[in-house]
Amino acid sequence: MKFFIDTANLNEIQEAYDLGVLDGVTTNPSLMAKEGIAGEANVKAHYKAICDIVDDNVSAEVIATDFDGMIKEGKELAKIDDKIVVKIPMIKDGVKAIKYFTAEGIRTNCTLVFSAGQALLAAKAGASYVSPFIGRLDDISYDGLQLIEQIVGIYDNYGYMTEVLAASIRHTMHLIQCAEIGADVATCPLKVITSLLNHPLTDKGLAQFLADHAKANG
Ligand code: E4P
């Protein structure tokens, strides 16, 4: 399973990368705004800075919602670095844009996916990644994990190459269950990745080992 970090914060990206388990980064316009990144030149420079930290897979989202606008913007984003994956919303022109970029050999991440039907469309258009938002479905009392299971099953049935990128992950159980289901990728905040480290028996066991060592060695 690939781990992506869902943030535009350079320190958090560096921290996750230094842990040695990071395979990529997902950003979105809200995450960029949270870091105060605004204006075309700053946005491009920030994506470049992210690309300079990680080895691959930096999702950069288009703002345009019409086909021509998405193509123009997506091409500009793709020029920043080979690591860029153009993130396109699941709307009619978005599906057309994914098809276009696939033919051009530019990788895409189809975002804001909330149904199996949308995921099927993204795969047929040739998206490199599809991003179902688990947490936002849970927030409205739908089962986000069931959607991941459905999409993994459908893609397996037909051998679609599109990777299932479980997004909007809120806690470690989401991540573990996505791994059990067989999602290809999970994107989550840094705290979800670092929370995987925690177990009280690890802390207790380590304290005991160190205490016994200290006793034996004076
Ligand atoms: C995915 O690519 C999105 O950026 C993200 O996972 C959305 O998460 P949220 O629902 O916590 O905003």
UniProtKB/TrEMBL annotation:
Keyword Chloroplast: no
UniProtKB keywords: Cytoplasm, Pentose shunt, Schiff base, Transferase
Principal location listed in the UniProt entry: cytoplasm
Name the record gives this protein: Probable transaldolase
InterPro entries: Aldolase_TIM, TAL/FSA, Transaldolase_3B, Transaldolase_3B/F6P_aldolase, Transaldolase_AS, TSA/FSA_arc/bac
Gene name, Swiss-Prot/TrEMBL: tal
Presence of the UniProt keyword Cytoplasm in the record: yes
Source organism of the structure: Roseivirga thermotolerans
Catalytic activity reported: D-sedoheptulose 7-phosphate + D-glyceraldehyde 3-phosphate = D-erythrose 4-phosphate + beta-D-fructose 6-phosphate
Family, similarity comment: Belongs to the transaldolase family. Type 3B subfamily.
Catalytic residue list: K87
Localization (cell): Cytoplasm
Pathway: Carbohydrate degradation; pentose phosphate pathway; D-glyceraldehyde 3-phosphate and beta-D-fructose 6-phosphate from D-ribose 5-phosphate and D-xylulose 5-phosphate (non-oxidative stage): step 2/3
